[in-house]
Amino acid sequence: xxxxxxxxxxxxxxxxxxxxxxxxxxxxxxxxxxxxxxxxxxxxxxxxxxxxxxxxxxxxxxxxxxxxxxxxxxxxxxxxxxxxxxxxxxxxxxxxxxxxxxxxxxxxxxxxxxxxxxxxxxxxxxxxxxxxxxxxxxxxxxxxxxxxxxxxxxxxxxxxxxxxxxxxxxxxxxxxxxxxxxxxxxxxxxxxxxxxxxxxxxxxxxxxxxxxxxxxxxxxxxxxxxxxxxxxxxxxxxxxxxxxxxxxxxxxxxxxxxxxxxxxxxxxxxxxxxxxxxxxxxxxxxxxxxxxxxxxxxxxxxxxxxxxxxxxxxxxxxxxxxxxxxxxxxxxx
Length: 333
Fold this sequence. Notes:
Blueprint: H1 3-18, E1 24-28, H2 33-43, E2 50-54, E3 60-64, E4 72-76, H3 83-99, E5 104-108, H4 128-139, E6 143-147, E7 162-165, H5 168-178, E8 182-186, H6 192-202, E9 205-215, E10 218-227, E11 234-242, H7 246-257, E12 262-270, H8 276-282, E13 287-291, H9 298-301, E14 306-309, H10 312-323
Parallel strand pairs: 1-4, 4-5, 5-6, 6-7, 8-9, 8-11, 11-12, 12-13, 13-14
Antiparallel strand pairs: 2-3, 9-10
Helix pairs in contact: 2-10, 3-4
């Protein structure tokens, strides 16, 4: 064997050793291409080439338009509205990448649709969050990367590694910079752990809202009680999701009646469905701070009360660490 051939073999072996995990590729469906593009910009990489459309009968059509064999692929696709379409796009993308011989596929549903259906609330009710987890696994995902799951136990719905990040790494610096004399408010009993973590980091007091719901997205009139002292403080509500904004509107009113100087809210995922825009505009909320896990509709994006913080840098750091088999614990607060 000649010297040039030996050197070539040595070079290829070293290349494989250095790039053991394969090329890092990032793909996206139609749910939030801007976020995917921003992440790619932080990583100085192009967005993967894929055509994600529908056939004339409405079936999802996916075509991967570049070589992914042996690559480490991340699919950024929040399963937001239209939820079922975006879930199907994610599943078909994963299947297409698996059948194209990608080495590892990480699904990145930064917003996990159906996450609020994480347990049985009636004798014959489904656990839809578990079903969605099973679908992603069956499609061929090798691991999951998500942000602020509605319930931490959703991680256990997967028999795969799950990296669960928190947008507090982005939100807390914003609060520190823009608010003084604050009290952190949990909008319900289920959010106490999150509020306590924010309050501890911000060295602030905490209050809890006790509310009674008649039906989903609707609370009983006059059934809001504030546990804790908010008088004379700038109240900051922290939550993972803001949906119709109805309960948020009533909570703002209740906090102001208890003597809060001002009320703002920090909600990671801006679902903002139904009458959300009207509820926000009509409420006395000073600011609603959200992240870009879900893209805002044009009419909501121009609302002067809404501020959007980007999680693209946080997401890019996590993707790079996962690709390099490094710990992501430094990204936890």
